[in-house]
Specification:
By secondary structure, this protein is an alpha/beta fold. It has one domain: Rossmann fold, CATH 3.40.50.150. Helix content is 29%, strand content 21%. It contains 8 helices and 10 strands. It starts with 19 loop residues before the first strand and ends with a strand. 43% of the residues are buried. It binds S-adenosylmethionine. S-adenosylmethionine binds next to helix 1.
């Protein structure tokens, strides 16, 4: 999402002040916990910036603007209406809200209490309530086999050192044959700066270097981190959790999308993929 250290933040909303940013080894658990807190504090500013693109009742998979209504990656709506659907790393649960507006029994979770509060705000604004609770995607408060489908659009996976634990937990809460679909920043993007213009087309680091991107405060404590996985890493994680991969999607940038979102935008999007979507099902 952001890995060139260019983003500064202030502490006006009680957020820890960024002191240092870059690629370095870090205590993964501490960094993941701090990142959850970061998302919680950042929720209002994030929604202020990206809320209109995401919509309050809309299911957008990625900055390219691919909608579930077009892509049907979770399956046809007629089928979903008879199934139980779980969203993890849901943010303000816009995707689940859209599913519920279509008559689908969708519930949501996110690790950040601030995001869950933002979801409640959108519920009131739209009149469509999403059952949502605070939960780490690596430790879900649900019975084994209690869902038919699980998904996330850019949630959880980039922010934990052990994404394999997310896939295992999703496998646990899905019934046999259950589907799991998730979008992440395209792993190729790790090699390039967070710049959506032509200047962002020159690789500046190795695609193979898994050293995480970490922001720390003045006491050198992590406040935000992202963890890189190559495409092969994602495939191995998912397969080892018991899934068969059905598709790997790399949405092209549509010519009519002029929106810039951090490192995503039309100029670079015409040349490099920005999003990877993995569609899998339990064997
Ligand atoms: C980029 S947002 C994606 C949410 C939504 N689809 C959107 O586009 O706004 C990332 C979300 O992942 C959540 N997240 C980060 N780490 C998580 C974890 N370990 N478990 C569950 N959610 C997590 C954050 O709190 C945040 O809401």
């Amino acid at each position: 999402m952001r890995h060139d250290g260019a983003v500064q933040q202030d502490d006006s909303a009680g957020r820890p002040e960024l002191s240092r940013a870059g690629y370095r080894q870090v205590d993964g658990d501490a960094a993941a916990q701090a990142t959850g807190r970061w998302w919680s504090a950042e929720a209002p500013a994030y929604l202020e910036e990206h809320g209109s693109f995401l919509g309050d009742v809309d299911f957008c998979w990625c900055p390219e603007g691919l909608r579930e209504s077009q892509a049907q990656l979770l399956g046809p709506l007629e089928q979903l209406r008879g199934e139980r659907v779980l969203e993890v790393g849901a943010g303000a649960a816009q995707c689940s809200r859209w599913l519920r507006s279509q008559g689908v029994d969708a519930v949501a979770t996110d690790v950040a209490p601030g995001m869950v509060e933002a979801a409640a705000l959108l519920d009131r604004r739209t009149g469509i309530t999403v059952p949502i609770q605070v939960a780490d995607a690596r430790e879900l408060p649900f019975e084994d086999g209690s869902f038919d489908v699980a998904f996330t659009a850019f949630g959880a996976i980039p922010f934990v050192p052990d994404a394999d634990a997310v896939h295992r937990e999703i496998a646990r809460v899905l019934r046999p044959g259950g589907r799991w679909v998730f979008s992440v920043t395209h792993p190729l993007r790790w090699a390039f700066p967070d710049d959506p213009t032509a200047a962002g087309l020159v690789a500046v680091r190795s695609y193979f270097d898994r050293t995480p991107y970490v922001e720390t405060d003045a006491q050198d404590r992590p406040i935000y981190a992202e963890f890189h996985r190559t495409i092969g890493d994602h495939v191995r994680d998912v397969v080892r959790a018991g899934f068969a991969i059905r598709d790997l999607l790399e949405p092209a940038w549509p010519e009519d999308n002029r929106e810039v979102w951090g490192g995503w935008g039309p100029e670079r999007g015409a040349v490099l993929p920005g999003t990877l979507i993995v569609s899998a099902a339990l064997a």
